[in-house]
Amino acid sequence: MNTMVKGLTYTEQGTTAWNNYLKQLEKVAPYLGELSERLEMLRRPKRSLIVDIPVIMDDGSVQHFEGYRVQHNLTRGPGKGGVRFHPDVNLDEVMALSAWMTIKCAALNLPFGGAKGGVRVDPTQLSKRELERLTRRYTAEINFIIGPQKDIPAPDVGTNPQTMAWMMDTFSMNAGSTITGVVTGKPVHLGGSLGRVKATGRGVYISGREVAQQIGLDLNDARVCVQGFGNVGSEAALLFHENGSKVICVQDHSATLYQEQGIDIAKLIEYSRSNQKIQGFSVADEIQASEFWAIPAEVFIPAALEGVINTHVAQTIQAKIILEGANGPTLTEADEILSDRQITVVPDVICNAGGVTVSYFEWVQDLASYFWTEEEINQRMDVIMKNAVHSIWSKAEEVDCSLRTAAYILACERILIARKERGIYPG
Q1: pLDDT for 297-310, tens place per residue?
Q2: Cα(88)–Cα(69) distance, rounded to whole angstroms?
Q3: CB proximity list for 22: less than 8 A, separation 6 or greater
Q4: Which of 6, 23, 46, 116 is catalytic?
Q5: Any catalytic annotation for residue 116?
């Protein structure tokens, strides 16, 4: 099967992010009954926008950057998804990430569709003023397809609350009034939500805790390895550490640190914030990056970029649970190997959904202009995450499939039933 988007043909062969999503979708088709006839609507984005972003640089020159906003599916509500600033951003990746957001929101039963955005740029090479001009022009270019009831961007790789503040301000200036609900992940004093920064990592821990109970794994003294030490990886590592697990290995772009008796995560977080990397942290040993996946441990948390667990890693890794803190870290062929080896994979569409759950809370709070305490937010997120994990676990047991396939079954059923009931305009 081929899927044509904006003149580019993507097939089910290969290992691109979009192909990986299509393969995951095909695995769920046999479980959908008559709804499988409607699955075609999830094999292509509803809308893909490519924009040119001219930016006046600090030296007076003009540079052009390519930006994207993809709305994969809006059947269950406005689009929801982050904006990524990274030199490797491309349409294929943004399409896949938007599709995973569609599945994630439906699996959590949140009233959103899936969307994603990005700009192909290395943000570390731009000054703050250049980043502001880039962000504002990008926002102006996608202005007509975003909004609190249309599509709500959020931070992702290379973006942060300041980026969201610029986006919110640009959209508001064009609208003629302050509209805080156009983005989430904003600074708290501009309508952002308490608990948002730690939410994704917290969700990784909650889903890991619930699944560990299901398989009879005692997390007290369980060994944990974490790849990626940004907001997601560091918060997940800290929560496992604080609740009795031993985080024995941490890897980021700069180094791979190992300590058999467990790393002091609080101290490592303090060090990494000061140095923007974990390399040089003297309280743990530095080992080769290639050794990471072969370390014996009960829990592995890939919390960096997609596609890191390939067939070789799947055959090498020694773990009982893999918690996908990143989006799409496991290739489809690797997923099958892990399943055969009876390694439980908690898929990204549920495992890292704490972030979009609190983004939902932020959107609700902005619409109501009434804000909750961090304790209220954490309690509400815990309930939603626990319910989602247990629903997916029950579905997996019912039809004898992996947690990923179960999550896709639930999500696709919700989306396709909603589309069936809404019908097709104009009919």
Answers
A1: 999 999 997 789 99
A2: 15
A3: 1, 3, 10, 12, 43
A4: 116
A5: yes
